[in-house]
Recover the amino acids of this structure.
């Protein structure tokens, strides 16, 4: 009886873990460094569940490039978010989402924070995500024809 109960418990636990959606992303080293330097603790998105579900259904992950710089006594953080297939190197920045944020406080720490803030805003306000997924599907189809 205990064996059956433990087996059922394991099945339920794995089903719960499977049901929880998680957004995955491939990031440039600059983005990774900015996240580390700001103690990034995960996605803070109003539409997390919707974005996650669309990416999972499309078998896609985000491809994030960005920069955190100090220029002319200003901190600047910018990102561009595209899509990449989860199992291949096929990617697209067609219908990407981008964001640039500027602050008059000139420091690299501020620039790093602005990059992370820009990343959240770019994903949260990605109005053409469905079109980006269609562009990724088109790129996949073109790659299969080669």
């Amino acid at each position: 009886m205990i064996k059956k109960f433990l087996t059922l418990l394991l099945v339920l636990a794995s089903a719960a873990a499977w049901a929880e959606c998680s957004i995955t992303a491939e990031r440039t080293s600059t983005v990774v460094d900015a996240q580390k330097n700001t103690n990034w603790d995960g996605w803070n998105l109003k539409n997390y569940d919707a974005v996650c579900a669309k990416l999972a259904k499309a078998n896609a992950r985000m491809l994030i490039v960005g920069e955190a710089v100090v220029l002319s006594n200003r901190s600047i953080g910018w990102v561009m978010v595209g899509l990449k297939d989860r199992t291949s190197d096929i990617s697209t920045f067609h219908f990407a989402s981008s964001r640039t944020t500027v602050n008059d406080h000139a420091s690299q720490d501020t620039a790093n924070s602005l990059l992370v803030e820009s990343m959240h805003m770019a994903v949260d306000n990605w109005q053409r995500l469905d079109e980006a997924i269609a562009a990724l599907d088109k790129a996949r189809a073109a790659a299969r024809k080669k």
About this structure: The CA atoms of residues 5 and 11 lie 10 Å apart. Strands lie at 25-27, 60-71, 74-85, 91-103.
